[in-house]
Amino acid sequence: MKLSGFAIAPGQVLGKAFVFRRAERQVPFRSLDQRAVSAERERLQTAFRGAQSELADLRARLSHEAGEAHAYLFDAQILMLQDPLFAGRSLTLIEERLIGAEWALSIVCDELRRLFARASSVIAERSHDLDDVLDRVLALLGGTKGDLVLPRGQKVVLVCEDLKPSEAAEIDWSLVGALVADHGSPTHHMAILARSRSIPCVLGVRTATTQVPSEALVLVDGDQGFIETNPPPQTRVEPVRESTRTGPPEGPARTGDGDEIILRANIEFPSDIEAVRESGAMGVGLFRSEYLLSRQGRAPSEDAQLEIYRTLALAVAPHPLTVRTFDLGPEDLAPASPSSPNPALGLRAFRLLSRAGDYFRTQLRALLRAADEVAIRILFPFVGGVGEAVEILSLIEELEGELQRAGRAFRRPPLGAMIEIPSAALVAESLGRTFDYLCVGTNDLIQYTLAVDRADPRVGHLYAPFHPGVVRLLGGMVSAAREATVPLSVCGEMAASREGALLLVGLGYRELSMAPSSLRQIRHVLAASRTDHLERAVALASKSDSLTAESFAATLLSVQEGR
Ligand code: PEP
Ligand code: MG
User: Fold this and answer.
1) Whole-model pTM?
2) pLDDT category, 297, cuts 50, 70, 90?
3) Pair 520, 279: CB distance under 8 Å
4) Which of 68, 82, 488, 506 is the most buried (most CB within 10 A)?
């Protein structure tokens, strides 16, 4: 069976599927020996205690972030865990029926579900709480990592609906031969991750998790964008050829007529830093720091973060390490908290400051302290306009005051704004007068400009980086940054594509940041092109109402051939 999707990261892999379905509940059945009963009861009681303490933590956090009025949501679940009908009966069933804790618990939940269904609709609603509690206790009984623990041994083809950054952070990627997901598109975080780790990847397959059986043999073709389960036995996969590598290239890239283009790297995990050095990048243009958070939403302490930032910055010195502050939503901080109806437009990044201020304060304190010793730049995502700039600067001043009073050494590093919301693009000149540098996040800028969800494969064909509206915004920012005399860069995926990088340089961008795995190719592409040709091609292409990457490439070719 062949299923198609987006060709995200090149390479062909034939391997066994590991299907990760977040929603699927696995309840193992075991019958017990009489002698094992008391240990099994103790095991369940320990899981109950663990679940209660997790819920108490969540409750405290929600009360802090969203107010006491919302925190009561967890009270029902905490009470359930203390209810004799729930906990007591599960323990009794272990003893009476000689069955494992998981099975006993699921019997009790079925009984309660039936009871709830017969009651009023208000009570029936409690079924959701029941499911939540059941999942929490089952996870604790099976170890907190749940079903995301990949089998050791041969690399697997990881098939999932999608992956949250915190889940991705927990995976041992050395065990993943290829990545396939129902959701996602070329600019989804999973795509960025797969490319940066050079893992063949197909996204937007829609029914992969329902149609690919676990352990089935799957061929993943990341070049053409399809997967095939149980391919014909003669299917051969060429081993991935390691390109014959010379040492890392040094210094900025150069166009054929000698213009310097600074290339930096985008990273998600501290362990990516080796690839950055290998790629010859002039430092890190974007560290997506939210990948530091655990699945439960916990961030490393201030001192631990200080150490991480210092180590990473030293590894790329004398070039800078650009750390983007946590770009996340409430669901990343507390997995059980309700996400916004439309997370892309909801409470994100600094919009969470009044609810989850500690995350940002801790991170910024660590960054201010690290900047005293190493070359750090702070980058703020999701800035919509000057209002946020004022809020950010006043927080920085407040934290500097705190550090001063505590006798801590610190320094204010260059502060930058990500331009990824159209309103910010339109007021880029004002933002350039407030921040020290600007960095365009084309992934989001395109999604917001075109109203096309970058994570939804059903509208993937409408996601058009070369849309004249997008190109106009991109061009406008070059003039805005010149007026404000601030450095301007691009760190979205557009910079990592051949035509995208050429268009950006033709528009006047001189700094691009991308996955380390794309850097050598883009350096090459730039060396083969002249800036004057690129500028001419951009001027001609900008007249088109139906510009695409292909039509831009054709225009450039005709300019290069002097037609
Ligand atoms: C962007 O939006 O272009 C970007 C670089 O950030 P992310 O992909 O993490 O949203
Ligand atoms: Mg973004």
Assistant:
1) 0.70
2) confident
3) yes
4) 506
Q: Which residue has the tokens 């990948």?
A: 291
CA angle 544, 548, 549 (to 5 degrees): 130
Q: Is the minimum distance from the CB of 444 to ligand 1 under 6 angstroms?
A: yes
Measured by CA distance, the residue closest to atom 1 of ligand 1 is 441
Please tell me the total number of residues recorded for the chain in this structure.
Answer: 563
Q: How confident is the model at residue 241 (pLDDT cuts 50, 70, 90)?
A: very low
Whether the predicted pLDDT of 243 surpasses 50:
no
Q: Note the ligand closest to the C-alpha atom of 443.
A: 1
Separation of 142 CA from ligand 1 center, angstroms? Answer: 35
Residue 122 has pLDDT above 50, yes or no: yes
CB–CB of 548/464 below 8 Å? Answer: yes
Does 2-19+154-229 match 34-140 in CATH topology?
no
**What are the two backbone dihedrals, phi and then psi, of residue 428, each rounded to the nearest 5 degrees?**
-60, -35
Q: Are 350 and 388 in contact (CB under 8 A)?
A: yes
**What CATH architecture does domain 2-19+154-229 belong to?**
3-Layer(bba) Sandwich (3.50)
pLDDT band of residue 72 (cuts 50, 70, 90) is: low
CATH number of 34-140: 1.10.274.10
CATH match of 255-530 with 3.20.20.60: yes
Q: Alpha-carbon distance 444 to 241, whole Å?
A: 33
Q: How far is the CA of 458 from the centre of ligand 1 (A)?
A: 20
Could you write out the DSSP letters of every residue in 157-196? EEEES---HHHHHHS-GGGEEEEEESS--TTSHHHHHHHH
The three-state secondary structure class of 342 is coil
What is the residue extent of each domain of the chain? 2-19+154-229, 34-140, 255-530
Residues less than 5 Å from ion ligand 2, measured at CB:
420, 441, 444
**Residues designated as active site:** 189, 491
Structure tokens at 195: 């490319």
492 pocket-lining for ligand 1 (C-beta < 6 Å): yes
3-class secondary structure for 404-438?
HHCCCCCCCCCEEEEECCHHHHHCHHHHHHHCCEE
> Vertex 408, ends 405 and 411: CA angle to 5°?
105
Ligand positioned closest to the Cα atom of 493: 1
User: 284, 322 in Cβ contact below 8 A?
Assistant: yes
pLDDT, tens digit, 9 for 90 and up, residues 514-547: 999 999 999 999 999 999 999 999 999 999 999 9
Burial of 385 (0-12, 13-18, 19+ CB in 10 A): middle
Distance 308 CA to ligand 1 centre (A): 21
